[in-house]
Every structure is written in C-alpha cells, then in structure tokens.
Amino acid sequence: MRKLPPLSELRAFEAAARHMSFKNAAEELGVTSTAISHHIRLLEEYCGQALFRRRPRPLALTDAGTRLFSIVRSGLDSFALAIAAIREGAEERPLKVTATNAFAGLWLVPRVPDWTAAHPGCGLEIIGTDGVLDLWAGEADVAIRYARAAPSEMVVHELFRDRFYPICSPALLSKGPPIHRPADLLVYRLIHCIWPSWNPEAPTWHRWSIAARAADPEAPEIGEVGDVNFREELHAIQAVIEGQGISILSDVVVARELKAGVLVKVLDIAIPGFGFYLVHVPGHPRQAVIDAFLSWLRIAD
Predict the structure, then answer these.
(1) 178 and 148 both lie in a single domain
(2) Which residues pair with 288 in a beta bridge?
(3) Is 158 in a helix, a strand, or coil?
C-alpha cells in the first residue's frame, strides 16, 4: 500500500513553490495564507525536513523542496491531463437513454432527428428494453420509466401521463360497420396486450369494458384474453397499424400515428394509464446534457 500525504498538502506545496509565495498560492487555491502555511508545515513533518527556507527573505526551496517540487509538479500535471482527457471523452460519448421498447420505437426514435438538429454533436444511444437497467451501475445515463408512481431514490421528473383508448387503423373501419357504442366493437377482432398479472391497474380490455359501462350500461364485459394476444406492447401496436384488429393503446406512445391519421380512436372512452418519468442518479457528471434532454422531451412534438 502506498504511503502518501494528503493531496491538499501536496497541492498547497506545489502552488507555493511555483509562485514562491504563500499569499499567491492561497489566492489560487481559494484558501488563506495561514491554511497554506499549515498544509506545508504538515508536509514538512511528514517528510521529516524543511522544504522552504523562510529566512532570510525571499522565500526559497531547500534541496529537499527542490527535489519534491519537480516530482509533485509533474504528478499533478499528469493528473490534470488524464482527467481532462477522461472528461473530454465523456462529453463526446453519446447520452445513454433507456426506455420501454414501445416508447423507444414509436415515440423516441422518430424524434431523434429533431434532437440532433437542436443539439448537434450531442448524440444519443437508445436502449429499448422492458427490463430495468441499473443506473447506479452505469448501464444507462437516464431512463424513461413507465410506472404508476414516481420511482424512488433517484432524481425524478414527470414527463407526461397517458390514457388508453380503443384505437385501430382507418382502413379497418372502412371495411366494416361503424362503431357508435362499446357493443359495436364485438363485430371486430379485439387485440389484447398481456400485462403482468401482479398489476391490477394494468390498462387491459377487461378494465376498459368495466369503465365503458358508465357510459353505456349495455356495454359487454370483455375478458382478459382474446383470439389475438401479445406480450410485447410494440407487437400489439404493429398488428393494429396493419389492420388486424382493434386494441386499447396509449395516446402518448401512438401520438404520432394518431396525428398523422395512421391510427384513429374509435370511441372517446378511455381509462388512465401511468406516468412517464425521466430518472437519473443524483450528482450525475453529465447533468448539463441531461437537463437539455429533459427540456427537449417536454417540448418535443
């Protein structure tokens, strides 16, 4: 194990030796001259001999001080260069963003050109996964988490909350009878997205049908599964886009498709979804980039 004095003592000595002035060293390091003198005295005690000749003036290095100054100055210069190189590499590295597959694929990826146009030179590395990556371990810089409540033990910013509507391709509706009330849905194939069984508030067809009865007491009860079922939300959305049936979908995730007319809401009855939260660890070294990304997310169309 290396036996070294505290870095504060070495920094104080190097600054004082470079300026040949305790006062100027104190101004550079933002401390008092007394603090510089104290640090150097401790370093001299550690070394077992004087490093400066304080009398007669002007201040001068002893032979031991001259030898030590050359080594310490070189070491601090090497530290500074290495840290600068690491910082420069970190600034050039793309910001790692993790989100669910559906949000990444349908919401985030189509808007990446808008980000790069607004922030040239600041790339994104998008990790689409329905698993939860470990931000503390550095698996991603930020995560867009989809949850009922804000995640804990992180810095959290709520972005938006979604609602789930019956949605389909307009081409599908053009081939069948119009839909005016929940019972009319049964003429069409209903596409189900299978949510985890431990989540009683999941936006399923069954929950939607219960809510629909408030608007239409004759609305049929729809089961948890149907003829077409997907465990991956992105696959269910793709099936709907291709006209295979109707599903209840997030108005946030498919906002772009709704705006473009690729998908349409077939009834104006919705159930609440969850919140989209931008999260990152406290004191992240790329806080400025994260703040810019957060601001962009909130205004992205």
Answers:
(1) no
(2) none
(3) strand
